[in-house]
Each structure stands twice: as structure tokens, then as C-alpha cells.
């Protein structure tokens, strides 16, 4: 690699890093706006009608800003996925069923945050971009993802909210979420043979 290639590679790395940092701050900004919107809605119930109307207009402007940030984040994430991967595993995340009042175990604050990110809208947009770039999107189930040992295949009971998982067979420890990724990938290969054919490398 000559000096010009090295400069080009470093420039690309800096650009990728700056895009990651920008996306990270956009997520933080959207969360901050959501908290501000929740506080404004709560305060608008305790003021006079004239002030309440001003709060209502401010809430509408905040909702528009949040909607624009979420849409921008959807577009950037979808573009990153279709430009870097041939096959994309998209876990099913049924938000509309999880937020139902009857029998839910999460608070209203978590419900608002889940609905803000518009998971289904991202799913539809990602599928359209994958079709445009001729990539494959597979819906996969996350059942027993964390409770199943990726190396040993054992079922780890009483997992709860532990962040570190320890195998009872070989004693190895691993973080909860990286631990479940290989199992999710293997499950997709078994349940969906067409997913393996869509990859550019042979598994």
C-alpha cells in the first residue's frame, strides 16, 4: 500500500467514525427531546387554557422534530446494513402486542419510548432498501436466544436479568447479548436454508 492509498484509507476511517459519532448524538438528542416532550405534556395539564394552548403548539413542534430524527436514523441504519451485508437477520419485535394495557408488565414511559422508534416502519423501509440493493432480509425469532448456550447447546435456567452468562458444562462466561448472536445466526441457517444461499460466503 503506497502513501496515497494509506491517506485514502485513513480518510475513509475518519469519515466512518464521524458518521457513527453523529448517529450516536442524534439518538441522544431524540431521547432528550422525548423526555422534554413528556415533561411538557405533564405540565400542560396544570396550567391555564391560554398557556395550555402554547404548550400544545410546542408539543406539536417537538413531535415533528422527533419524527424527523427517527426517520433520519432509520435511513442511515438501513443504508449501512444493505451496503455492508448480503443477508440481514431482523428479529421479530411485536411492539403493538407488547404495549397493550391488558397484562403488560412495562410502564407507560417504556411504552412511549418503544412506540417512538417506530419499529414496524423501520422494518418496511429496510425491506424496500434491501429489495433495491438486491439483499436478503430474514425475520427470525428470538425465543430462547439468551438462554441457549451457543457453544454447548445447553438451556440455561433462571437467567433473569443477568448481564453475564456462565455455562454449567464448560464454565465459560460471556456477555448476555454477544452470547445470543451466534445462536441466532445458526438458528436462521437451520430454519431458513435460503438465507445461506443468499450469503456471499459459504458457511
Task: Provide a concise account of the structure shown.
This is Transposase. Helix content is about 65%, strand content about 10%.
Question: What can you tell me about this protein's structure?
Answer:
The protein is globular, with a radius of gyration of 22 Å. The protein is built from seven helices and four strands; from the N terminus they run H-H-E-H-H-H-E-E-E-H-H. Helices cover 63% and strands 8% of the residues. A hairpin with a 6-residue loop joins strand 3 (164-166) and strand 4. The model is unreliable at 1-18 (pLDDT under 50). It has 203 residues and is mainly alpha-helical. The strands form two sheets. Strands 1-2 form a two-stranded parallel ribbon. Strands 3-4 form a two-stranded antiparallel sheet. The chain has helices at residues 3-44, 49-84, 95-98, 108-116, 119-132, 176-191, 193-198; strands at 87-91, 136-140, 164-166, 173-175.
Main-sheet strand order equals 1-2
Mean pLDDT: 71
Shape assignment: globular
The tally of helices reads 7
* Poorly predicted parts: 1-18
Q: What is the helical fraction, as a range of percent?
A: 55-70%
Measured on Cα atoms, how large is the radius of gyration?
22 Å
What is the strand content? 5-15%
Termini separation comes to 30 Å
**What about the largest sheet?**
2 strands, parallel
Order of helices and strands: HHEHHHEEEHH
Number of strands: 4
Query: Which class do the helix and strand fractions yield?
Result: mainly alpha
Amino acid at each position: 500500500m503506497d502513501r496515497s492509498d494509506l491517506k485514502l484509507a485513513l480518510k475513509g476511517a475518519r469519515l466512518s467514525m464521524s458518521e457513527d459519532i453523529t448517529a450516536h448524538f442524534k439518538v441522544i438528542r431524540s431521547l432528550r427531546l422525548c423526555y422534554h416532550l413528556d415533561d411538557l405534556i405533564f405540565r400542560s395539564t396544570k396550567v391555564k387554557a391560554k398557556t395550555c394552548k402554547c404548550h400544545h403548539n410546542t408539543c406539536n413542534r417537538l413531535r415533528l422534530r422527533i419524527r424527523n430524527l427517527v426517520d433520519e436514523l432509520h435511513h442511515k441504519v438501513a443504508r449501512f446494513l444493505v451496503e455492508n451485508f448480503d443477508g440481514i437477520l431482523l428479529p421479530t419485535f411485536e411492539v403493538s402486542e407488547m404495549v397493550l394495557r391488558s397484562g403488560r408488565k412495562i410502564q407507560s414511559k417504556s411504552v412511549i419510548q418503544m412506540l417512538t422508534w417506530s419499529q414496524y416502519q423501520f422494518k418496511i423501509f429496510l425491506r424496500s432498501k434491501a429489495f433495491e440493493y438486491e439483499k436478503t432480509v430474514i425475520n427470525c425469532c428470538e425465543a430462547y436466544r439468551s438462554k441457549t448456550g451457543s457453544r454447548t447447546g445447553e438451556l440455561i435456567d433462571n437467567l433473569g436479568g443477568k448481564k453475564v452468562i456462565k455455562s454449567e458444562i464448560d464454565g465459560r462466561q460471556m456477555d448476555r447479548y454477544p452470547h445470543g448472536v451466534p445462536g441466532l445466526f445458526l438458528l436462521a441457517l437451520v430454519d431458513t436454508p435460503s438465507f445461506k444461499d443468499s450469503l456471499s460466503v459459504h458457511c
